[in-house]
Amino acid sequence: MSFLSQLINGLSVGSIYALIALGYTMVYGIAKMLNFAHGDVIMVGAYTIFTAVSMLGLDYWIAIILSVVFCTVLGIVIEKIAYKPLRKASPLTVLITAIGVSYLLQNIVLLIYGSHQRPFPKIISVKSIKIGENLVISGEAFFTMVITIVIMIILTLFIKNSKTGRAMVAVSEDKGAAELMGINVNRIISITFAIGSGLAAIAGLFFASTYGFIGPYSGAMPGIKAFIAAVLGGIGSIPGAMLGGILLGVVEGLSKAYISTELSDAIVFSILIVILLFKPSGLLGKNVTEKV
Amino acid sequence: MFKRFLATVLLLAMVVAVMASCKNESTAKNEFLIGGIGPLTGSAATYGTSVKNAAQLAIDEINENGGVNGMLLKLNFQDDANNPEKAVNAYNTLMDAGMKVLLGTVTSQPCIAVVEESHKDGILQITPSGSAVDCIKYDNAFRICFNDPDQGTASATYIAENLDVKKIGVIYDKSNVYSTGIFEKFKAAAKEKGLEIVSEQAFTDQSNTDFSVQLQNIRESGAELIFIPVYYQEAAYILTQANQAGMSIPFFGCDGLDGIIPQLGDNAQIAEGVMLLTPFAADAQDEKTQKFVKAYKEKYGSIPDQFAADAYDGIYTIAEAIKKAGVTSPDDPDLNQKLIDAMTKIEVKGLTGTMTWDASGEPKKEPKAVKIVNGAYKSMQ
Q1: B269 vs A: CB within 8 A
Q2: Which residue of B has its CA nearest to A255?
Q3: Which of A126, A193, A228, B83 is most buried (CB neighbours < 10 A)?
Q4: What is the CATH number of the domain that holds A28?
Q5: Is residue B381 in a domain?
Q6: Is residue A288 part of a domain?
Q7: Which residues of A touch B241 (CB under 8 A)?
Q8: A261 interaction partners in chain B (CB closer than 8 Å)
Q9: Residue A106 confidence (pLDDT) above 50
Q10: Binary contact (B202, A262; C-beta < 8 A)
Q11: Of B201, B213, B220, which has the smallest distance from its Cβ to A134's Cβ?
């Protein structure tokens, strides 16, 4: 019973990681860059909903749509201003720029809203499911899991079957060849960022609803954890992000429960190192051999 | 030409300085100047304002009743914006103004800086609310509130003597001195008082949003009470998740929980029944508290908090020390030593309890606790 409920705790944390990791892995898979600001876009998304509902008194649905639109636009703007000029630069330069964008977003929110944590409006209110005396699944966690799976399926179908999706795969495989085939590479990368950031807004909604509070640094740690989840599952692979996120959450939950609450992060990060040593492409990642 | 200009400026500066010092000497002969330092601006401004208001209230009361040993008390309160450097500047300003005793500072970090200065000058310093251990590390410094780790002892004592629970679960922040300090003292005192800690759950500042595992462990340990010596931001997460998980074990915290009700916003009802250690509850029925709350409300239009109560007690403590020392003039050459010696001999019946002090400067008094009922503090018992 105890093991089961700790497993459920792990699964619910894991599904949040998975939801965030979907955005990470998609941007990496297509644009081949690690968007370290992804976690902070989540935070911005949550703040948008907070502002719309708690400060402007708007309806929940309008607030959610507003947040998705705002983050989508934010994603496109960030890509255009910060990343596009660096398309020909080394990956390290882009990575450092992404870290810069991350700090920029954190500090803008810090300036506008202050450092203290804000209570997040109760948008998703689902009754917790009680199975036994000590076995309870919180409604928010259950809902997050379902939504994550739904989004994963939609994304996979979109990439496999739509014209834009196939163009994305082409860009990810060979930018030059894709361009020769008449694909507008810049447009495809912009669309990727737009979708990734829109997903971040949804992740922000679920993250903030589960924990109840948001602060300017709320996105940083989940962002890093989701990045590990994406690497664990095979960065670039959408089902991989899902698997990695769930696995990470369960490992974290069980090591907190049975080994040590303080060491759980150390254990999680060690797993990242071990995976990278033995299977650098991740659990579901493709093994791409470089052709010389 | 430039030299001449410089000379004129310097001369002017000298004249102003002389005039300024004349002005200081012109204060009434038998006026005893108490300095105050605390944040009146910035994020901690509410604390400093409470201390300033309540200190002035206490001084007015004492003066209306004829002062102390023929002297009238006077308060000069300076802003430090919760900044150690500004606090030291404020201290120097007050010393120049002829301060005899310092009531301050209000917050811990500035207090640690100022106590170095007051120790050099040898004057009596009483901090109403600086709770870090180092705030009173010298012989000349005393405090009104409990220090951080002592809240752990006080909590264990309170729980053992007043609540019908034996099995305690604890969630604390291992990366934070405040939380760990309280927890260690709590653990030691709990053992002495016959309480059993059935589950110890730590977290760090890197993992302070998800508490589902810790709460689950405590639920399974059979704890009857959860002790949370953490700040209100983490406590808000803990309470929210305990509520989501459908837990009904009561929570008990320390002064770090002060602020939990506004933090929870619309969800404040999940803090119902949470208990916390605090020196003062404005709704307490004793005559002393009621009189103070009424006078404070009339004068400042708000309900006093624990900082106000600490400051009010601080001024009465200073008055008591002056009486005990038999000081009749602010110009007494042995003033400082007499007052410091008197501190360990007095007993003050204050709003926050009946206090005595030993040479360490820590107060000895009974801990008090409040429970959150209908979104407000209600004193227990």
Answers
A1: no
A2: B213
A3: A193
A4: 1.10.3470
A5: no
A6: no
A7: 211-212
A8: 201-203, 207, 213-214
A9: yes
A10: yes
A11: B220
Length of chain A as a residue count: 292
3-state helix, strand, coil in chain A (%, to 5): 75, 5, 25
pLDDT tens for B262-303 read: 788 778 888 999 999 888 888 888 889 999 999 999 999 988
Spatial CA neighbour of A66 closest among A261, A267, A204: A204
Residue among B201, B233, B241 minimizing CB distance to A261: B201
CA distance B301 to B298: 6
- Indicate if the pLDDT at residue B375 is higher than 70: yes
Q: B313-326 pLDDT, tens per residue?
A: 999 999 999 999 99
Q: Which domain, by its residues, includes B53?
A: 11-145+287-364
Residue B5 falls within a domain, yes or no? no
Residue A21: inside a domain: yes
B26 pLDDT band (50/70/90 cuts)? very low
Q: Other CB atoms closer than 10 Å to residue A14's CB: what's the count? A: 29
Task: Please give the ipTM for the structure prediction.
Answer: 0.76
Measured in angstroms, the CA of B136 and the nearest CA of chain A are apart by: 29
Q: Which domain holds residue A172?
A: 2-278
Residues B25 and B47 in one domain: yes
Looking at CA atoms only, how far is residue B44 from chain A in angstroms?
A: 13
Band the pLDDT of A2: cuts 50, 70, 90: confident
CA distance A243 to A282: 11
Q: Residue B59's Cα: distance from chain center in Å?
A: 18
Residues within 8 A of A (CB atoms), B 172-211 only: 174, 201-204, 206-207, 209-210
**Which domain CATH number covers B109?**
3.40.50.2300
Residue B79 has what pLDDT? 94
- Residue A195 domain flag: yes
Mean pLDDT, residues A80-107: 90
* C-alpha pair distances (Å), A19 with each of A184, A202, A229, B48: 28, 8, 10, 45
* B270 CB within 8 Å of a chain A CB: no
